[in-house]
Amino acid sequence: MVPRVLRVRECIEEMEGVVTLVLEAPGHFAFEPGQFNMLYAFGAGEVPISITGDPTESGVVRHTVRSVGQVSHALTRLRPGMELGVRGPFGRGWPLERAEGGDLVLAAGGLGLAPLRPVLRQAMAQRSRFGRVVLYYGTRSPETLLYREELAQWQGADIEVQVTVDRATPGWQGHVGVVTDLMQPGHFDPGSALALLCGPEVMMRFSALRLQELGVATGCIHLSMERNMHCGVGLCGHCQFGPKLVCQDGPVFPLEEVEPLMKIREL
Amino acid sequence: MEQLVIDVEGLQQLLDRLVQQVYEVIGPRVRHGVVTLAPLRSVSELPAGLVEVQAPGSYRLEPMETREGVRPLFVHRVGPESWRHFLHPPAELLWCAERKDGHLRIHPRAAEAPRRAFLGVRACDLAAIAIQDRVLAGGAHADAGYLARRNRLFIVAVNCTSAADTCFCHSMGCGPEVKEGFDLLLTELTGGGEHRFLVEAGSDAGANLLRMLPSRLPERGELEERRRRLRQTAEGMKRSLPPGAASVLARNLEHPRWQALGERCLACGNCTSVCPTCFCSRMAEKTGLDGTRAEHWRYQDSCFNAAHSYIHGGVLRHERGSRYRQWLTHKLLHWQAQFGTPGCTGCGRCIAWCPVGIDLTEEVRMLGEVAA
User: Fold this and answer.
1) Which chain A residues are Cβ-neighbours of B108 within 8 angstroms?
2) Most buried of the four, A39, B13, B39, B321, by CB within 10 Å?
3) CB contact A73 to B (< 8 Å)
4) Which of A27, A58, A90 is the last residue of a domain?
5) How many helices (H) and strands (E) does chain A have?
6) Residues A84 and A100 reside in one and the same domain
7) Domain check: are A52 and A106 in the same one?
8) Are residues A100 and A79 in the same domain?
9) Strand (E) or helix (H) holding A152
10) B48-52 LR contacts (CB < 8 Å, sep 24+)
């Protein structure tokens, strides 16, 4: 139950209020893409943060944190050389093995790209394991694009990267609109595709609908849920989502397990 | 199972033996007009001849007529406190953090668990302890503090010889007869005006202790009194949870009754405070003024608090009806999926201690009827 102490090697400011913390993890910090850690900021508390690094990368573990509350604010204020507590990895990750040989469709909204980054890194490193790989990424505005440089790298590594923003700024040449607008027939083979979604619930619901419309089987759509978590190990009761404990049964769920629950107001 | 009979003096010797074996004995004691659970050393501290009169939104402690000229010690049933307050205390320090010379150190709290004996655990509350065992120690990550306290526990259970108006353990399959999970089990007998206890051992520790007490073999009439009283207790239960409660709830997650409930419910959290199985906890930091030390605490929480469902975007369960639905469906429906057991034992505390008298058995019945 007690966190390990890790040292901050690097803080990458992704945009205002969003920092990627690169932590020194002696040896190899093994995790499955989609899992999370509980990060402890001294004197502030603990919060669940998805792991956003490359699962094969040794010596470090990465998290992207947005300052939204007291603890996440304290985390974004950490500087290289400072230390924090880490418990994890916890939860169920993306069922990547199911994508083997087929197409891989990723849909991310805002910071929802963070838990999908390990999948993209893996797809890039083992590109031949998959058929077509498509990333649909929607964010508020061009300034809030996450992992900006990597988006181009992924594109260069035979990954189809499609980006849209809710609000354009002068100079934006790309798409404006919701992420579902990007999803068009012909981008991938719906019969072989595995779809992984992460973002606000409403974005995931509509993305799932759109993907189903394009012919992706419900059983091949998975999404990452977010709930209040205080312990990360199924003991505190906060992350209940109907019969599910998001920290244990999730955060990644097959759509069919959570779709009926997502339709119930204030569950 | 061997059954022996001890008298009131034998019960005192049982307490003495437990104290000798360095157990802190916790049992029912009257405080502020209710039966609470507190340390005790003498039989004279038990709530002799007092009975709890309970109804929706109401709890009164009243003297009873003597039973066959005897003032029974265990004729009350369950007060607002449950054993959970000792096994999973409302506040617990989990770890201490220290920041010194630019380094962070995190020290686990020394897992020093008290050696405790619970006296007077009812069937419903034994079932509740078994449920908490599954929740807090049955999964991949056990709560170390709970496990340490649980492993050092000695349980003296008591069969209920009468039911309160709020009791419904029989319909939950949890009582009134104690079946397992105890070290010693008492049944209070008063037949023939003689005050004595039928004692059964449920563990080696219990059997060893029982051997040290002055006892005799029971007479046939005493075994008959045990059977009769338990039968009468079961038959005397006025409340029951309708069969198929889980499926009634599963079919009615969206139902106008929840909104009506939200209008009555105060979201005070009393039900979650008195419930013997509620386990929700929030974590909070306590920091020293000099900025070098912090403590990570676990505090009892309630799904009726708005902050329970808070994520960065805001609160997920705004409506009180949604919070009540969360609580009730968790107890009777979703607990099963999460922990392989329902989360309710039929102790009835939430009915008595609800300030507006919401009765979950009635709510399930209404949801079922309107649906049908």
Assistant:
1) 1-2
2) A39
3) no
4) A90
5) 6, 15
6) no
7) no
8) no
9) helix A148-156
10) B48/B72, B48/B73, B49/B75, B50/B75, B50/B76, B51/B75, B51/B76, B51/B162, B52/B76, B52/B77, B52/B78, B52/B79, B52/B164
- Count structural domains, chain A: 2
Q: Which of B311, B217, B307 is nearest to B269 (CA)?
A: B307
Q: Does A248 touch chain B (CB under 8 A)?
A: yes
- Residue A73 within any structural domain of the chain: yes
pLDDT in tens, B22-66: 999 999 999 999 999 999 999 999 999 999 999 999 999 999 878
Longest dimension (CA), chain A: 52
A69 in the same domain as A186:
no
- Could you say which of A5, A245, A264 has the minimum Cβ distance to residue B338? A245
DSSP assignment of A112-128, as one string?
GGGGGHHHHHHHHHTGG
- ipTM score above 0.90: yes
Inter-chain touch B280–A236, beta carbons under 8 Å: yes
Residue A188 lies in a domain: yes
The single-letter code of the amino acid at B369 is: E
Confirm whether A68 is domain-assigned. Answer: yes
For residue A15, the enclosing domain spans 4-90
Q: How would you classify the pairing of strands B58-63 and A83-90?
A: unpaired
Name residue, tokens 């022996």.
B4
End position of a domain, from candidates A90, A112, A137 = A90
Contact A11, B73 (CB under 8 A): no
Cα–Cα separations (whole angstroms), residue B144 to A21, A91, A265, B111, B138: 30, 20, 36, 8, 12
In this prediction the pTM is 0.95
Domain assignment present for residue A142? The answer is yes
Q: Across the interface, which of B296, B322, B333 has its CB nearest the CB of A266?
A: B322
Let me know: does B69 contact B53? Beta carbons within 8 Å.
no
**C-beta neighbour count of A148 within 10 angstroms:** 12
B110/B259 Cα distance (integer angstroms)? 46
Q: How confident is the model at residue B372 (pLDDT cuts 50, 70, 90)?
A: very low
The pair of three-digit structure tokens given for residue B48, joined into one six-digit string: 């002799």
Q: What's the whole-number mean pLDDT along residues B231-248?
A: 95
A14: domain CATH number is 2.40.30.10
